[in-house]
Amino acid sequence: MQEEKRVKDKEFVSTRKAADILGVAVSTIQLWADNGSLRAWVTNGGHRRIAKDSVDDLLVKRDLSTNPPKQLVKEKKALTILLVEDDESQIDLYKQQFVARELNVNLVEAHNGYDGLIKIGQYKPSIIITDLMMPDIDGFQMLDTLKKNEELKDCLIIVVTALSLDEVENRGGIPDEVIFYTKPVVFDQLENTILKKMLNN
Predict the structure, then answer these.
(1) Does domain 72-200 have CATH number 3.40.50.300?
(2) How many CB atoms are located within 10 Å of the residue 70 CB?
(3) Residue 78 CA: distances (Å) to CA of 99, 150, 175, 189, 191
(4) Cα separation, 126 vs 156, whole angstroms
(5) What is the distance, to the nearest Å, from the Cα of residue 31 to the centroid of all Cα atoms in its chain?
(6) What does pTM read for this prediction?
(7) Taking the domains of the chain in order of start, what are their residue ranges?
(8) Contact 41, 49 (CB under 8 A)
(9) In terms of DSSP H, where are the helices of 110-172?
(10) For the stretch 95-133, what's the b/e string if a residue is b when 16 or more beta carbons lie within 10 angstroms of its beta carbon?
(11) CATH C-level class of 2-62
(12) In this predicted model, what pLDDT tens digit does every residue of 32-69 receive, in sequence order?
């Protein structure tokens, strides 16, 4: 009874809410409650309630870098993402995916490296997603220019290209800190990369 009173005196959440926060199934929350990984109690109506601070403690213990739960970033300020891409169908695909995945971002478009450099100065994005093969100034030239910009040291840069890694290396390569994806990009991976940036921003 004393344990139940201590839990009741704290903020609590339902098993569904705890599952959403931790990014797991409700059945997993029930299992963790039963084995003591989460502090919980059962109402007179038979509903399980989970102590919110217990959920928070479990979040700290888990490896959030693998698959950061969306609930953790929903309340954070929207990040500005600059998408540097000359293919309109690809731009539309990014927009559709960001909307469908409910990512809290402000998406800014640029259609080549020159346009991208101008937009970077205007919007100071937290994330840059860029193709490499584009007209005028391409992605390689843009990335080479960005290496010299100290203001972008905390900016996450992601390359998404149809070129293989060997082809990229043959053209001079890209900076080591740049994340590299080949087209067609796996949006589950891209989403996790964006969520990690939101979580740490």
Answers:
(1) no
(2) 18
(3) 13, 23, 26, 19, 14
(4) 6
(5) 28
(6) 0.65
(7) 2-62, 72-200
(8) yes
(9) 113-123, 139-146, 165-170
(10) eeebeeeebbbebbbbbbbbbbbebbeeeebbbbbbbbe
(11) mainly alpha
(12) 888 888 888 887 767 788 888 888 777 766 554 455 55
